[in-house]
Amino acid sequence: MLFILLTLTLLIWIGATIDAALGFRKLEPLEDAISVAEGPLLSVIVAARNEGEHLTQSLQTQLAQTYKNTEWILVNDRSEDQTGNIMDHVKEIDPRVKVIHVKKLPEGWLGKNHALYKGFQEASGGLILFTDADVIYHPEAFSKAVGYFERHGLDHMTATPNLSAKPFWLKAFVAFFLFGFSYYKRPWLANNPRSKTGIGIGAFNMMTRTAYEKIGTHEQLKMRPDDDLQLGMMVKRAGLKQRIVAAMSLIEVEWYPSLKEALAGLEKNTFAGLHYRISMVLFSVFGVFISQVVPFFTIFSGNLALSLLSGVNLIFLAILYVMVTKKMTRFSPWLFLALPFTAMLFIFSIIRASYLTFKRGGIVWRGTKYTLAELRKDKLK
Asked: Which of 99, 51, 37, 47 lies closest to 71, judged by CA?
């Protein structure tokens, strides 16, 4: 049985490696785009709750952009720290900034989704950028993004940022997460107009006002913790033109400051990503364990055929891992050696997040509890 399972995983890794090698060729670096000084009004919408620690630095890099035809709509989502005061101060010194203070969350909405939608309602631009309050931008990020967007006649564009991390195990976990995200979601398919696979990344989701309204805005995503991803999927389902680009030196975000916080952060969207199905949880746990943990041990098997099969599995696993790491991170490919441990950590995070979701009867996000019944009710078909 083990021999059969490893044979199946080998076929999967061979296919995934070829798929990624071809797909990454279509993932263009935004750094190569031509900067534009003039263009459509860009409305940048930033939703924040208790982000006082990061907000100032992020806004400083945004307001220093070389693309000047920009306005900012900053939405303070019921913050209990200095977030609102920081926004008000920035508004006083820069006339391009508007501030919205959300005092109460309407029933049937996740806080962030509601805040982004409220920001859109105050936006004037024909081009919208949804971004997070902890993203750091290179001065030419907007100008290159608008230039690329206009040149290719896009409806939606998302960008992969540099996910920074300091502690070793956090780096290893981030690298593993991106590795898994790549072969599971195959983000490069967003650049294939014949594919219905779409992608969206919360750090940078740029789209036309027309496209956003056509897909129904965040009103169609009221209770989706993975709103950024779902936004991109809706764009492709609507037959609109989408691109994903790499922006490793233009956009940077610290995903989480520690491994503990990363595990806590995954609580909100892990079960959503598995479609709220126990069967998907079990399948994911089993699949990751067999394909990314077992070969590291069975390579030492006394059975020569099993040992060789495990070795070939690890070769293709390593090729794919290194490919993803070099394309989507600035981490060392040698983190591959920690893969069986980060795989087990990821399995733990899936089980933990699913268990806590059931135990709590839902998720707690940005200080508000959302029941599992509510989340499942608004699940996209």
From this structure: 99
Total number of domains constituting the chain: 2
Mean pLDDT along residues 65-94: 97
Q: The domain spanning residue 109 has which CATH number?
A: 3.90.550.10
- 3-state secondary structure (DSSP) of residue 339: helix
The answer to whether residue 93 is domain-embedded is yes
> 232: part of which helix (H) or strand (E)?
helix 227-237
Question: Of the ranges 12-16, 57-61, 267-271, 307-311, which one carries the lowest mean pLDDT score?
Answer: 267-271
3-class secondary structure, 201:
strand
**Which structural domain, as residue segments, surrounds residue 131?**
26-171+185-255
| Tens-place pLDDT, residues 91-130 | 999 999 999 999 999 998 999 999 999 999 999 999 999 9
Phi, psi of 374 (to 5 degrees): -65, -45
Q: Is the pLDDT at 149 greater than 50, yes or no? A: yes
Whether 224 and 285 share a structural domain: no
* Amino acid present at 182: S
Residue 381 in domain: no
**Is residue 179 in a domain?**
no
Residue 191 clears pLDDT 70, i.e. is over it = yes
Question: Order of strands, edge to edge, in the sheet holding 242-246?
Answer: 97-102, 70-77, 42-48, 127-131, 205-208, 156-160, 242-246
* CB atoms inside a 10 Å sphere around CB 37: 11
- Give the residue from 371, 381, 360 showing the smallest Cα distance to 108: 371
User: What are the CA-CA distances from residue 198 to residues 116, 138, 189, 195 (Å)?
Assistant: 20, 26, 7, 8
- Given 255, 273, 296, which residue is the final one in a domain? 255
